[in-house]
Specification:
CATH superfamily of the largest domain in chain A: MetI-like
Radius of gyration of chain A: 22 Å
Structural class of chain A: mainly alpha
CATH topology of the largest domain in chain A: MetI-like fold
Oligomer: heterodimer
Number of domains of chain A: 2
Structural class of chain B: alpha/beta
CATH superfamily of the largest domain in chain B: P-loop containing nucleotide triphosphate hydrolases
Distance between the termini of chain A: 28 Å
CATH class of the largest domain in chain A: Mainly Alpha
Distance between the termini of chain B: 31 Å
Order of helices and strands of chain B: EEEHEEEHHHHEHEHEEH
Largest sheet of chain A: none
Shape of chain A: globular
Number of helices of chain A: 10
Number of helices of chain B: 8
Strand order of the largest sheet of chain B: 6-7-8-3-9-10
Order of helices and strands of chain A: HHHHHHHHHH
Shape of chain B: globular
Largest sheet of chain B: 6 strands, mixed
CATH topology of the largest domain in chain B: Rossmann fold
Number of domains of chain B: 2
Helix content of chain B: 25-40%
CATH architecture of the largest domain in chain B: 3-Layer(aba) Sandwich
């Protein structure tokens, strides 16, 4: 109950700050430049159908991109973190490619994949790939060797070490990198969606309305924030289930 | 019988080589117990890992029942310093890990071992929910799950308070009598070595070489701690370590 109340107060504080900023900007400029939260929220209700369609398009692109980057970067990160020979081969490649701003490749991706969803998903997946790769590799390198010794002495094969130790030991850190990636992924998705002239998605929707119907554009921004929030909650729920052991505390016997 | 013949263990290669154990030989008959004691970091854990097949000696040979040790074996169990429990597995999963890794299903025996060790009420709990003493018991249950003929222990009671330490020492002694396995204990605790080792090998500082062998065949009863022989063995060990 106390937790819910804290959430309500913090959201109320955010809305209040937004309203104040809106009033200040509009008074200084003598024009309705920045819509307030109630303007934006009323536009969310008025444009619910259109927003829902664009929200769904953005959501599945983002989720697909996260799944693709997890499926590729996580195994590669864990392997390079645990296998020195692979690490020696892949490290220079990672260090050279990681700092490249992936957004610089967007035009190239449009040429390769066209202007449809594939480019947008590829763009986001590419950005998240490095986040998850670097995080999984670091987590795998830092595993307490006693766990590995423990299963090896019990007769584990190399793949059993991955299944019983490496994967569960690194999962919390990988999920943290997914959480960080949600914010980054939304930013990249926005860029990718605004670059396609005509298309679906919240990025395209915001871009379309930003000049002449700012209230609707901000309704799109609210929807994007909601998308991020829902994904954060989903990752939290997954972590609570998959890493249940992290949330237990010592308790006396009955 | 365990036969350690002129074993030398090195880490690293070329100029980076560090010698952990040098030319160590001893034998241990089936069902007997041996304590290896020496200064912290002297190399005794390396010797224990070589006995369990986790690392290979640079030279020399280790055999158990006539078979050379080159990989971990089902009949040799190892208990690590912090019990080696996986935090993400429950007590039941940790206790039966050796069986599950070998594609076997826990038998009735597994539940009985857990009950015997007082763990039947905590089978679904995670290690973080247990006291340190309980965690060590789970480590013991895991080691016993495969009915080993050799039990290797690496400082199994480190960081426990005195009373819990003594309780678990008593438990080891009882289990040793009940199960009849050969037991090799690595420790830097004089009292533990004197209570659990029928024979005690004292090592030098790194690289570990045998400095003294102490016969302690009077051990074996729970009230040995109050015995004058026990005090005498502790004095001998102290002198050997200080030499």
């Amino acid at each position: 109950m106390k937790r819910v109340l804290t959430y309500v107060i913090s959201i109320a504080a955010l809305l209040f700050a937004w309203e104040m900023a809106s009033i200040a900007v509009n008074v200084i400029n003598h024009a309705a430049i920045l819509p307030g939260p109630f303007d934006a929220l009323s536009q969310v209700v008025k444009n619910a159908a259109e927003l829902r369609r664009n929200f769904a398009a953005s959501a599945w692109r983002l989720i697909l991109a996260i799944l693709i980057s997890l499926a590729t970067a996580m195994p590669l990160g864990l392997l390079t973190g645990r296998e020195p020979t692979l690490d020696r081969f892949f490290s220079p490649i990672i260090y050279i490619t990681y700092p490249i701003p992936q957004v610089a490749l967007i035009l190239f991706l449009f040429v390769v994949f066209g202007t449809g969803s594939a480019t947008k998903v590829a763009m986001v997946a590419l950005a998240l790939f490095f986040q998850i790769l670097v995080s999984a590799r670091g987590a795998a390198k830092n595993i307490d060797e006693e766990y590995v010794t423990s299963v090896l002495s019990a007769g584990a094969s190399r793949w059993q070490v991955y299944w019983h130790v490496v994967l569960p030991a690194t999962l919390p850190q990988i999920l943290t990198s997914v959480r960080v990636s949600i914010g980054l992924g939304i930013a990249f998705l926005y860029i990718a969606e605004t670059r396609a002239a005509l298309g679906t998605g919240l990025g395209s929707y915001i871009n379309k309305h930003m000049l002449f119907s700012r209230g609707r554009a901000f309704a799109g921004i609210v929807a994007m924030a909601l998308l991020g929030l829902l994904l954060y909650i989903a990752v939290d729920v997954i972590e609570r289930i998959a890493c249940r052991w992290k949330y237990v505390k010592r308790r006396p016997l009955k | 019988m365990i036969d350690v013949d002129a074993v030398t263990i090195d880490y690293g290669q070329g100029e980076q080589t560090v010698r952990a154990v040098e030319n160590v030989s001893f034998r241990l008959d089936k069902g007997k117990s041996l304590a290896l004691i020496g200064p912290s970091g002297c190399g005794k854990t390396s010797l224990l890992f070589a006995l369990s097949g986790l690392i290979h000696p640079r030279s020399g040979k280790i055999t158990i029942d006539g078979k050379e040790v080159d990989t971990p074996r089902r009949d040799v169990a190892l208990i690590l310093q912090n019990a080696g429990l996986l935090p993400w597995k429950t007590v039941w999963q940790n206790a039966n890990l050796s069986l599950l890794l070998n594609g076997e299903f826990p038998q009735q025996n597994a539940a009985e071992v857990l009950a015997h060790l007082g763990l039947d009420d905590v089978m679904t709990r995670f290690p973080a929910e247990l006291s340190e003493g309980m965690k060590r018991r789970v480590g013991i249950a895991r080691a016993l799950s495969t009915s080993p003929s050799v039990l290797l222990m690496d400082e199994p009671l480190a960081s426990l308070d005195t009373l819990t330490r003594e309780k678990i020492q008593d438990l080891f002694l009882n289990l040793w009598h009940e199960h009849g396995f050969s037991m090799i204990l690595v420790t830097h605790n004089i009292e533990e070595a004197a209570f659990l080792g029928q024979r005690i090998i004292v090592f030098t500082d790194r690289p570990a070489r045998i400095s003294t062998i102490v016969d302690n065949s009077q051990m074996g009863s729970l009230d040995y701690r109050g015995d004058t022989d026990f005090q005498g063995i502790m004095s001998q060990l102290r002198e050997a370590l200080e030499a």
